[in-house]
Design goal:
This protein is an alpha/beta fold and 254 residues long. It has one domain: 5-stranded Propeller (L-arginine/glycine Amidinotransferase, Chain A). The protein contains 6 helices and 15 strands. A hairpin with a 4-residue loop joins strand 9 and strand 10. The longest helix is centred in the N-terminal third of the chain and has 17 residues. The protein starts with a strand and ends with a strand. It binds glycine. Glycine binds next to loops.
Length: 254
């Protein structure tokens, strides 16, 4: 699978009021804007055509666009984010998706689902039951995926905000794992690289067409990914880390 496009959303000034459990200090909005612009440049340098959506001041977390939609080949699914303050983000993502997909599917109440809880390895999709994604949301996703021949595996979670906070698929069987997912039997058939606790944020590194975007400041993980044979592209997302936002959260790639 190769990606050719990405959708991102410019952070709004309200970003500084986004949901956070990180305790890493206040967000510097101007710095976040610069980091976001650099992230877009990194995607473009990897060959993606990037659609940059306008900022949405009403939704502080709306730059974390991965949570509001899922894309599997020609299928676009609008999620129903589990945090009430994020729920309306689904409205403005629709026209952006309809530029690329003739029709959309939806996750509907009582189901909730954040895109950050969904990880694809190509032929199999994993969904984490988190504080944001409930069983109804996971079951609805399973129905949508069945129609396109994809298997869904439900993963129980204990600690992480999102599934992809702690596990990310690169390609060729390579998986980054940290925290509660290090020994998870569900991924025992993969070539797992353990991301040490001090570098847990870097478990959310993103494979793009043979290269891997890695957050700045995590040398052990950077080196481990290089040793797997990938070209590493380092991007500084420290302002988004303050809001529990990882590299994958900042884009929809397809
Ligand atoms: N601040 C990102 C999220 O909690 O959804």
């Amino acid at each position: 699978m190769m990606f050719t496009r990405a959708i991102v959303r410019t952070p709004a000034p309200s970003l500084v009021k986004g949901i956070s459990s990180a305790d890493l200090g206040p967000v510097d909005f101007e710095r976040a804007l610069q980091q976001h612009a650099d992230y877009v440049l990194a995607l473009e340098a990897l060959g993606l055509a990037v659609t940059v959506l306008d900022a949405e001041e009403a939704y502080p977390d709306s730059t974390f666009v991965e949570d509001v939609a899922l894309i599997f080949g020609a299928t676009g699914i609008v999620t129903n984010p589990g945090a009430l303050s994020r729920n309306g983000e689904t409205i403005s993502i629709r026209p952006a998706l309809l530029e690329h997909f003739s029709s959309l599917s939806y996750i509907s109440p009582p189901g909730t689902l954040d895109g950050g809880d969904v990880m694809s390895t190509g032929d199999c999709v994993y969904v984490g039951l988190s504080s944001r994604t409930n069983r109804s949301g996971a079951e609805q996703l399973g129905v949508h995926l069945q129609k396109i021949g994809l298997e869904l595996v439900v993963v129980e979670m204990k600690e992480m905000l999102h599934l992809k906070t702690g596990v990310n698929y690169l390609d060729q069987g390579n998986l980054l794992v940290t925290g509660e997912f290090v020994e998870a039997p569900v991924w025992k058939g993969f070539n797992r690289t353990t991301v040490v606790r001090d570098e847990a944020y870097a478990a959310n590194s993103v494979w793009i067409n043979g290269s891997v975007l890695v957050p700045a400041g995590f040398p052990q993980t950077t080196s481990a990914i290089e040793q797997l044979g990938y070209q590493v592209v380092v991007v500084d997302t420290s302002e988004f880390q303050k809001l529990d936002g990882g590299l994958s959260c900042l884009s929809l790639r397809f």
